[in-house]
Amino acid sequence: MSHLDDTKIKELEETANKIRQSVIEMLLEAGSGHSAGSLGMADVFTAFYFHILNHDPKNPDWPERDRLILSNGHICPVLYAAMAHSGYFPVEELKTLRKLDSRLQGHPHREWLPGLETSSGPLGSGLSQALGMALAMRMEKKDGSVPDKPRWIYCFMGDGETNCGQVWEAVMMAGREKPFNLIGIIDRNNIQIDGFTEDIMPLDPLVEKFESFGWHVLEIDGHNFEEINDAVNKAKTVFEKPTMIIARTIPGKGVDFMEREFSWHGIPPNKEQAEKALHELRTLGGKIKGEHE
Amino acid sequence: MLNENQKLNPKLLDKDVEQAPLRQGYGEGLLQAGKEDENVVALCADLTGSTKTAIFSKVFPERFVQMGIGEQSMASVASGMAAMGKVPFIASYAMFSPGRNWEQIRTTICYNNSNVKIAGAHAGVSVGPDGGTHEAVEDIAITRVIPRMTVVVPCDAIESRKATIAAAKMIGPVYLRFAREATPIMTTEESPFEIGKANLLRNPETPQAVIVACGPMVYNALMAAEELSKEGIEVSVLNNHTIKPMDEKTVVETAKKAGAVVTVEEHQVKGGMGSAVAEVLAKNNPVPMEFVGVQDRFGESGTPEELIEHFGIGISHIKEAVKKVLERK
């Protein structure tokens, strides 16, 4: 929530690197799963689970926690990794991803793992759920004023997901309701399963789309911790509108041969590729930086 | 011959029996549930008048959410509200909710185990002149197939009110099915109602068959039973309002006693209430069965009365089905 100093940034970069390594190890062990988006969002997840979120990993049901809704459930390897590394469950459990009876289902199932706010996978419904949470919270005060203990509700979404009509049902309604505590974060990595987003179903101008529906929109480099943190802080000062943060990320970020390759959207690395990826991540140490720095 | 324990409307068999639409019962039940529990909230997709959600929203405007024509988002917004402790009721025409938003209901409500209640109004062919696009005759099938979903099809406006209140009190997803037209009031305030407990409305001592019905078609079943009685055929009538979890004990007992079953519903025969009864009986007590309902067709325009006849769900059709099933005993 607060300002990030250089020491903290360095720490976050190292954590994000560990999370990326976990993602590679999990996907290798599972033999299936989504590589590109999971790696691309590692920095955003790290920023949230290790700095921004008001949460208690040892008490996942704490009523006053912020809510983080993952709408594009297929990037759950990075969610699970961030949860494990921040103390929700043992890091070793990450290797059970996608296995029979694992709490780490291929797409998140709320009931199986404490700390998950919802079950997701079918795209397009997370923002509606986040909006529902915001509306329910507002009803705590009969006059609709800000509750005594406002909780921030974050909805992480994919960019391809905005193809779904339901997203725009929620976007339109949030424009009317103006929930101050609803903050969306779109992973603008420009890929979806079948190819580049602008080839499949052009999304741009995405900023103007959200603005025209009454949202405050911020665009950031999703690999720059200062920008991620600043954007959330800015969003919290916008009281008359919901905020959408469009986080520009590189799919597969941190693993050279996966970066910007849409073919890595929905597949895991094989053993050889995983070793190469892990080697690259280990030798990079905490040196993963945003492209725009 | 009517079961006295059911405390049915004394005017039930009269020509001038009182009538009211089931959805009216929903609106009144919702208001009552809202008065009893401040966590009850209502969402509606631009049909507050037709679904009678307006009865609630006028009294509790701060607990009402207008969704516009967005049934998919409505299901998921309700899921989010339930996650924060609310008891959301979502309402639209059954064709759109649970029709259009089936996946959102499955994933964000049932898979998520959210405490959301889904009210589908204007179900069945008796919607009338609006035609087949608006006549949901698949909704029982698509809701009962989802794990965790409770499916209730009340028979009249009074039972609709009771079902709505009962749904608010239980935890878990519930689908409540309502019809558009005013239909006969069969039950009274004193009639027993419990989700998951079928009511034997007509109980001759030695029934030759049992008609298992749900929704306003229970009335047609009772009228058919009366006419058959005059022809010397005695049948019992079971109001099987809870399709899931079905009252298997009562269904099996009444089928065993009668030895033949006719199911009646304003819904596709494939996958509907009758199919659910057949699933129970095939396993526990197979008896000859006939299924009265929509036979794998879409609805169309007409008056409600014309359509019930056109689709073969009228009193005469039920009588024919009983006679047919008796031949197979």
State the CATH superfamily name of the largest domain in chain B: Thiamin diphosphate (ThDP)-binding fold, Pyr/PP domains
Quickly name the level 1 CATH class of the largest domain in chain B. Answer: Alpha Beta
Mean pLDDT over all positions of chain B:
98
Per DSSP, the total helix count of chain A is: 10
The percent of residues in helical segments of chain B reads 25-40%
Strand order of the largest sheet of chain A: 1-2-3-7-6
Strand order of the largest sheet of chain B: 3-2-4-5-7-6-12
Task: Report on this structure.
- The complex is a heterodimer of chains A (293) and B (329).
- The radius of gyration of chain A is 18 Å and the shape is globular.
- In chain A, helix 1 crosses helix 3 (42-52) and helix 3 crosses helix 9 (225-237).
- Chain A has helices spanning 6-30, 36-40, 42-52, 76-85, 126-138, 165-177, 197-200, 206-212, 225-237, 271-284, and strands spanning 67-70, 153-158, 182-188, 191-192, 195-196, 216-221, 243-248.
- Helices cover 39% and strands 11% of the residues of chain A.
- The mean pLDDT of chain A is 94.
- Chain A has a single domain, classed as Rossmann fold, CATH 3.40.50.970.
- In chain A, 52% of the residues are buried.
- Chain A has 293 residues and is of the alpha/beta class.
- Chain A is built from 10 helices and 7 strands.
- Chain A has a 5-stranded parallel sheet with strand order 1-2-3-7-6, with helices on both faces.
- Chain B is of the alpha/beta class.
- Chain B has 11 helices and 14 strands.
- Chain B has helices at 22-36, 54-59, 71-83, 102-111, 139-144, 157-169, 217-230, 248-258, 273-284, 304-310, 315-327; strands at residues 19-21, 40-44, 64-66, 87-93, 117-121, 150-152, 174-177, 182-184, 199-202, 209-213, 235-239, 242-244, 261-268, 289-294.
- In chain B, the strands form 3 sheets. In chain B, strands 3-2-4-5-7-6-12 form a 7-stranded mixed sheet, sandwiched between helices. A 5-stranded mixed sheet of chain B has the order 9-11-10-13-14, sandwiched between helices.
- Classes of the chains: A alpha/beta (293), B alpha/beta (329).
- The A-B interface holds A 67, 69, 109-111, 117-122, 124-126, 128-137, 139, 142, 144, 165-166, 169-170, 172-173 and B 41, 62-63, 65, 67-68, 70, 72-86, 88, 103-104, 107-108, 111-113.
